[in-house]
Backbone:
């Protein structure tokens, strides 16, 4: 069955706004919520951004059923032993609702600005990610020299994104979910058979034309703000979006991270859930 996550970058919002959107998504039937992990807002460094694990913990404490995660945490920001302990703690506190999305870092400028090693060396960043994934497995083991106490009470799903050769190897070895970038969807038929047990997910920016909305205005504003995403942006009413997501689901995508172009106005969250997601629950997506 298709899974629906609200993708909510914790940028240009107060913490109360983030919590409001999360609780609305929880009540509306979304399966989960995902945040980003940066020390500055990519491409908008004048905007404030909240720390990723803290905001996830705060939201987990104020929701009942949403799974909580990130697309994705940057492994360079936290020692893997600390990250392993954070993940186990948040998983236990939330009743097993935490998922660990992990990557090597996508915004090298913040590495330089904040004095973090390896920002300009993509190969070194992947080396570190590979090392840290192996260490997490050691930290979460039932026993062994590096095993932490307590061990995970619940399974902690691991999400890895990307399409590079080395990244795909890490997906096969470690991931429960593989997130394919929307601008690489043309490679889905080629890559999907190679991901092992991982299931495929996709982040999709949506300009949602609600019942009383002006379609031209929604499309114009969404395109002005996010047109640079190319195929990563889709605009339309509920019927058009049902067709769009049904096609993606038929191609093998099992989870959608929905990123709303209006910054997830609560009304948009509710109406999307009542229309597109309810259609999915009836088995047509």
Residues:
């Amino acid at each position: 069955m298709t899974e629906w996550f609200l993708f909510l970058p914790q940028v240009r919002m107060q913490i109360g706004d983030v919590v409001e959107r999360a609780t609305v998504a929880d009540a509306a039937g979304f399966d989960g919520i995902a945040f980003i992990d940066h020390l500055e807002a990519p491409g908008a460094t004048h905007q404030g951004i909240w720390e990723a694990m803290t905001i996830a913990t705060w939201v987990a404490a104020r929701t009942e059923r949403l799974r909580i995660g990130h697309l994705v945490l940057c492994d360079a920001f936290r020692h893997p032993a600390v990250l392993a302990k954070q993940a186990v703690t948040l998983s236990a506190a939330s009743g097993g609702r935490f998922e660990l999305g992990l990557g090597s870092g996508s915004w090298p400028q913040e590495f330089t600005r904040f004095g973090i090693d390896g920002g300009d060396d993509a190969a070194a960043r992947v080396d570190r990610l590979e090392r840290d994934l192996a260490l997490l497995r050691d930290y979460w083991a039932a026993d062994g020299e590096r095993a932490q106490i307590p061990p995970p009470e619940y399974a902690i799903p691991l999400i890895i994104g990307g399409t590079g050769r080395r990244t795909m190897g890490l997906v096969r070895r470690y991931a429960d979910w593989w997130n394919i970038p929307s601008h690489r969807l043309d490679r889905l038929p080629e890559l999907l058979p190679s991901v092992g047990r991982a299931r495929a997910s996709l982040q999709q920016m949506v300009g949602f034309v609600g019942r009383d909305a002006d379609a031209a205005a929604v499309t114009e504003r969404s395109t002005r703000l996010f047109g640079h995403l190319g195929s990563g942006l889709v605009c339309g009413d509920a019927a058009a979006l049902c067709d769009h997501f049904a096609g993606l689901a038929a191609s093998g995508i099992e989870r959608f991270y929905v990123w709303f172009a209006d910054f997830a106005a609560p009304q948009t969250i509710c109406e999307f859930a009542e229309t597109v997601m309810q259609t999915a629950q009836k088995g047509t997506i």
